[in-house]
UniProtKB/TrEMBL annotation:
It comes from the Eukaryota. Residues 12-161 form the CRAL-TRIO domain. The lineage of its organism: Eukaryota, Viridiplantae, Streptophyta, Embryophyta, Tracheophyta. Pfam families: CRAL_TRIO_2. InterPro entries: CRAL-TRIO_dom, CRAL-TRIO_dom_sf. This is CRAL-TRIO domain-containing protein.
Amino acid sequence: MSSHTSESDQELIEKLEIFKIQGRDKRGRKILRIVGKFFPARIVSVEALRKYLEEKIFPKLERKPFAVVYVHTDVQRSENFPGISALRSVYDEIPVSVRENLEAVYFLHPGLQARLFLATFGRLMFSGGLYGKLRYVSRVDYLWDHVRRSEIEIPDFVYDHDEDLEYRPMMDYGLESDHPRVDGAPAVVDSPVPMYSMRCIS
């Protein structure tokens, strides 16, 4: 059980800049940037997350159409992923006025398991047509086709991961682990059993 109070959890969320309203996409819509790696899922309660969004984020998104840039890079189930049921409960709490204004979700570095999960369960779990608003973005360079580059901050580790993907393209398909390799190890192990990506959505 977390030793944090709901208030200190919210302060931590604010400090880590997990959620940041910043910049616009190419259609002029305000952007909510979410960096999944920054979310301290082990210590922050779902209730604190809901309250933070309700007080600090949702009021700024009620009036006009907006888009979400969700950075999934380096999200690991045990570290920074709150779980599907938690995400569903947070999504269900989004006010209708905000949900109706959400027009696009740019999902950066989705990984194979995230794609499979959303393709299988996304339509069932997320009401309001959210699944139809998802746009998978496999590289940062492709994000600039949709988002004004100079107006949004993308953390350095995201660019580093992008560079890894250029040299190890099988990571995109879950056929190679996205954990750091030992220097000198081959990019793809010659084995009848593929090494599936450890980036996990559930």
